[in-house]
Structure formats: C-alpha cells, structure tokens
Amino acid sequence: MTGLIEGSDGVARCFWAGDRDDYRHYHDHEWGRPVADDRRLFEKICLEGFQSGLSWLTILRKRENFRAAFAGFDFDKVAGFDEKDVERLLQNPGIVRHRGKIESTINNARRAQDLVAEAGSLAAWFWAFEPRPDQRPRKLDRATLAAMPTTETSTLISKELKKRGWTFVGPTTVYAFMQAMGLVNDHIEGCHCRAAVERDRAAFRRPGPA
Prior knowledge:
Elements: E1 4-6, E2 12-14, H1 21-29, H2 38-51, H3 56-61, H4 63-69, H5 75-78, H6 83-90, H7 99-119, H8 122-127, H9 142-146, H10 152-163, H11 171-181, H12 194-203
Antiparallel strand pairs: 1-2
Binding site for Zn(2+): 14, 27, 187, 191
InterPro entries: Adenine_glyco (IPR005019), DNA-3mA_glycosylase (IPR052891), DNA_glycosylase (IPR011257)
GO molecular function: DNA-3-methyladenine glycosylase activity; metal ion binding
C-alpha cells in the first residue's frame, strides 16, 4: 500500500520509519501513543520546536542530551533558567545550539505554568482539542499525509498558544506534536502499528479539568 515500507524484519511500517533500530523503535512504541503526562507533553512540544529545519532523527538521537540539559523537561525547573543558563546551553555540543530555540524553551516553560494554572494541566488543555472522527481523513496514506502538514486543529492550537505567549509553535510544529503525542493516529493504513495505536486510544482515559 502507498506509504508503507517493509523492514528487514519483514514488518510493514510507515515510510518514514526506515530501517534504523532507533527510528523503528520510536515508530513502533512511542509515536502516536496517547500521552497524558505533562512533563512528557512539554518535552514533545519543545523537541518539535527544536526539530524545525532539521530531521527528526537528529533530535531523536540527541534526546537524552536534551533531557539532561533541560532538567528532564520539568517545566517548573526550566522556568527558573536565566541568561547564565542560556549561555551554558549554547556551549553544550550535545543539543541543538540555537539561541532562539533555547530561549523559547525557557519562555514556554513559564507559559506552561500559566496554562496549568488556567486548565489544571497541560494534558487537559491539549486533549480538549482532539479532532472528532469526522474531521479526520477516511483513508490515510502517504499522499494524504503529504497534503496536510497543518490542519484546522493545529492552526487553532497554534493560535491559542501564541495568544498565551508561546513561541516556536507554528501550525506545522503543532501538527507534528499532535501526531507524536497521540492526539491523532497518523500511522498509515496497513502499518502494523495502526490498529495497536487505535486500541491504545480507545482505552485511553482523556484528562479533564482538575
């Protein structure tokens, strides 16, 4: 089927998963699985921001370095970072040394605190935007995915986040985040993970306001 590849293990996966062990593991066990943990959600949206203009594989292979550099993406801790921390991080070869993205992560940590105060949790706020089934394509293949790097929902989330002072959260970045954290299931039809992710989503308890 369009958009599928068969790995060396004989398993059909989404075209982007390739045949690298780390990429396949991320595809099989993480991408699209529903997430309700605030720290993981903050990590995912920050790393999608760092990925802008780069390959996701670059970010994935630096993820442990990012976690060490940003206090495990505990946004209460990152919110306390100052200019000295920015300069320290700019000297860290294990992460993407982009001043704007580093400063954005610190800013967004503070905005995440505000969002928790507003909605009770990041999870409650983001999951409130989950698209209805009738807002999703009936059949998902590579061509369909290529035609929708943004969606009405990702544009709305981006707008709402920017209104609250978040940065590096354009509609394309937000859509990648939605895919990664399971707000949508974008495993292509025929991918061996698609049905498993649907089962996870069906069993997942959507977080509500605290």
